[in-house]
Amino acid sequence: MRTDRQATRRSFLRGTVGTAVGGWAAIRWPRRVIGQTAAAPATGLTAPSLPPSQAALLAGDSRADNVFRALKLIEPQVRQAIARKKRVLIKPNVVVTNNQLSATHVECLEGILEFLNPIVKDEIVIGDSSAGGQVTAGYDNYKYHSLANRYRVRFIDLDEMPTETRYVVDHRYLPQPVRLAQPVIDPETFIISAAVPKTHDRAVCTLSLKNVVVGAAIKDKGFRWGAKGTGSNDKVLIHGGPENQAIHYNLFNMAKMLRPDLSVLDGYQGMERNGPVAGTAVDHRIAIASTDFLAADRIGVELMGFDFAQVGYLTFCARAGLGQGDLTRIEVLGERITDHQRKYRPHDTIEQQLKWMTRGT
Q1: How far apart are CA 295 and CA 260, in angstroms?
Q2: Which of 29, 44, 299, 322 could be bridged to 317 by S-S, CB 3.0 to 4.6 A?
């Protein structure tokens, strides 16, 4: 098993962005291994009638190779799901445009695109809306455009796309209109969430679902945090009030429409402490992939060392049957969860964040 991984990494590194020689054809695949999950008793946090799900967990010394090999382990599910759609959109996490640790790495996107290369013959769109500033600056800073040298990709700014209006609630649970970019909510589009496991200042942690939901909400062109007269940012509305009172409900409710078709979590370097932007690196060197977003995020929570019951929006999704949240009903292909668990230090505001658990009691 170890020999195969080393050969895979060596082969992959010859074909990464910026090198002259491609080595993908020589890659040998790891055999399928059922990763034993941590013993998890029934918690009442998932819909009991939901069927089991599969997810892949890989670890290694190459970010892109980890992502590519994880996707290969679930290739039949991806092929089946993608065949039902007309187009593919990869939603990276470009929360800010000038901090690589907080954003999806170009090598993660490369691993995804190389996997999709024999499956998708049409152009693949990469699109996002950053929290502040123009996302195209992030594409430049993170060298995303280098991908166009090898793949049929097109980059879009979701803030410049047509929108549709949906509703979230504020801290009084009154409906608030929010503009969502049409490419992300188009039912004919296969949405891939390419995210980074990070701690969060409002929702404990951010993984594949939150990446898509908040990224789909757009802001006015020219919006800047702390500046007056520069337009509005609808992402703020998803937070659900000045103390983020409804953030978990809003993320859950939007997941009914915005959950990704394929989740890829690149944990080669995760973020702890004051994420999603100002945290510090965790050299985790893992990748997770699943066509069940909740299974992927559930494994991510476990690997980060957090209590799943405290991540409100994901537990709500599990109870509603939007995905599989029971570890005992997730078949983990590749590595064992218990071999790669870490204890990410939470955000400094974690106690304030967890007040949602006692509201109304």
Answers
A1: 12
A2: 322
Instruction: Answer yes or no: is 15 within a domain.
Output: no
pLDDT number for residue 230? 75
Among 71, 134, 141, 65, which residue's Cα sits nearest to residue 102?
141
Q: How many domains does the chain have?
A: 1
What is the pLDDT at residue 229? 57
Range of the domain at 164: 32-357
Other beta carbons less than 10 A from residue 49's beta carbon: 6
> What's the gap between Cα 30 and its chain centre?
24
pLDDT for the residue numbered 7: 38
Q: If residue 280 lies in a helix (H) or strand (E), which one and from where to where?
A: strand 280-290
CA dihedral 129, 68, 338, 30 (to 10 degrees): 170
CATH number at 285 reads 3.40.50.11440
Asked whether residue 25 is domain-assigned, the answer is: no
Alpha carbons 268 and 67: distance in angstroms, whole number:
9
Within the chain, which residues score under 50 in pLDDT?
1-42, 361
Residue 31: the pLDDT is 36
